[in-house]
Amino acid sequence: MENAGKEDMPDTAERKGLGTPATRAGILEKLASTGFLERKKSKKTVQLMPSRDARSLITVLPEQLQSPLLTAEWEYRLGEIERGELSPEEFLAGIYTMLRELAATYQVVKGTEYLFSPPREAVGRCPRCGGEVTESQKGFFCQSETCRFAIWKDSKWWSAKKKQPTKAVVAALLKDGRARLTGCYSEKTGKTYDADVLLEDTGEYVNFKLDFGQRKGGS
C-alpha cells in the first residue's frame, strides 16, 4: 500500500501510497473483513489478493475513481488546506461537483447482477456496536465501517481443539455469550471432551475461554 499507484502519480504528489503507516493495517483488515481482500499463504509469506467482489467493483466504478491520480490530487488539496491556501468548503464543493458529473454521465454496466456475491445473511448482532455480523470465507465480521469485531475461523484457539466456529456456534455466542462445543481435542491427553465456550470481548480483542461447569437441567 505504501507504493500503491506510484508509477501513475506525479513526482509532486505529497504521498505515494494509500493511508499512513498508522492506518494501513486497519484499512487492510477492513478490506479483508468486508470480503474485498483475500490472504493467500505460501510457505512463510502471505499474499494479499483482491477478491471476486473487489474485481467486480473495479469493473463497475468510473475510471476516474479508480485512478491513483485522484488520490494524489486530493492529497495536494489537503496540503493546501493545511497551509491555509484553500478552505475546506472549497475542497468539498469540488468533490460534490465531481460526483454530480459522474452521476449524470455514468453508463450502467450490463450484467452487474452476476458480478457480485449475493448479500450475506446476518448471524447476529455485534457485541461492540450492535451492527450486523455476517459470515465470510475467513470468519465472522461486523459490517459496521468503524468496527473491527471479528471471529476468525482459522485462529490458534480453535485450531488447537481441532474445531472451527460454525454459524450456529457464533449465533449462540453473539446472543447468549456462550455456546456448547462437543468433541473438542485435548492436546494434553489426546482425547476429546465437551464444554461450553464463552465469548469475552474486551472491545479491542476477541477472547474465548472454556467452562466445564454443570449445565442447567443436568445436561
TrEMBL record:
Gene transcribed to yield this protein: topB_5
Pfam families linked to this entry: Topoisom_bac (PF01131)
Keywords: Isomerase
Origin: domain of life: Bacteria
Boundaries of every Topo IA-type catalytic domain copy: 1-103
Region of interest (Disordered), residue spans: 1-24
Gene Ontology molecular function: DNA binding; DNA topoisomerase activity
Coiled coil: none
Keyword presence, Isomerase: yes
GO terms under biological process: DNA topological change
Amino acid composition bias (Basic and acidic residues), ranges on this chain: 1-17
Protein name: DNA topoisomerase 3
EC number: 5.99.1.2
Lineage: Bacteria, Bacillati, Bacillota, Clostridia, Lachnospirales
